[in-house]
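We modelled the chain as a single entity of 456 amino acids. Its sequence is:
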Amino acid sequence: MLSFRSFSAVLFVLILVGGTGSVAAQERVVPPSAAAITLSFAPVVKAAAPSVVNVHSAETVRRRATLFSPRGQVRPRGASLGSGVVVTSDGLVVTNAHVVGEARSLLVSFNDRREYSATLLLKDERTDLAVLQIDREDEFPPLPLGDGVDVEVGDLVLAIGNPFGVGQTVTQGIVSALARTQVGVSDDRFFIQTDAAINPGNSGGALVDMRGRLVGINTAIYSRSGGSNGIGFAIPADMVALVVRSAQAGGRVRRPWFGARLQTVTRDLADAMGLERPGGVVVNEVLPGSPAERAGIRSGDVLLTLGGRDIVDADAFGYLYATQGTQGETVFLARRGDAERRVNVTLEPPPETVPRDARRLSGPSPFDGAIAVNLSPAMADELNLDLSLEGVALARVDRRSVARRVGLRRSDKVVSINGRRVRSTVQLERIASRRARYWDVVIERGGQKISLQMGG
């Protein structure tokens, strides 16, 4: 039963609607045609759907853990791995690196049931993107890459993929947010968020705008059940374009070198620095000879925008700078004290100042089964290490190896062994080849030093 107050409120609304109803009725007209009352995404789907493929394997493969599958999965022979998108007429297909996993024999199938074998050209774990080449000389329907810059919150988008392996499916939603960086899906954290339904199997599929352009590659969802809760994430098209260009050039993804240690400007930091609001990154350290130093950037500077786009935090900086390429210049808006100025920074790949001298380690030591390399800006970029210009790091740790069993991982920087600082791969190989009764290994991982003690 309604209370007096609720009844009065309802009555007021009815009076208001009734009082204006005659005016609204006078403004309404009968739709002149069926087209005027029909809303359909069919034209966009017809243009985009032929470019979206299913990616599956011809072998049994294990996929790494993702937001879709926190514990990872073992896929049986011939099972669907996920989705992919044809981006060139000669058959380049973009998908997720976690979709490909460790598969060595890949197949792609179109919605019209055509099926072809494909070769893996490039797999980049940092972006969670992979590029395949269809093994057939033919014309394929490409989906044009859109420009991620002009995607806006509220834009209508379609997600096209193969959820749960049921066949090609289209879902509709909007762009819920941009520049999402707190998503632990890849190292380059910068995502388009959408409420279009994305489910397992949609990984690697297309996020398409109303002009039929590819604006993102669907990658992950936020879910506790494994199904769609309306929070999905896609890798923006400008990063997809960078990876595709890298595959076409026949190499790995090349990122420009900046040469500074950065920190996100939080609320507390903004207050301490006298800034109006949090945002951007503060420069904590600048490496000698780096592009940042040559451009005149100093410790204490706050970088606010890059190429006209806001730098939300350190993760956003990493993404935006990576997509600038390695040629020409880019422009920053930087703040020093109370003054703002524009700074031009040269875009160039990180140099290999010291030969990497990769060495496979074996013998009676904890490093048996690892490959060590000398560090340089180039090697640090490959291993995603922060400003490491010297020393030794592990470029690979074999499965089922002694090194893996004792807890060593790829990208671990070897600081010291039994109190002795490690400076080169030659030195590490010599130490690792000898037997010792006790090992005290200090490594650096994620900016933290870890000590591993074990018997010989």
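As a brief sanity check on the tokenised model: The domain at 260-346 is CATH 2.30.42.10 (Pdz3 Domain). The two ends are 80 Å apart (CA to CA).
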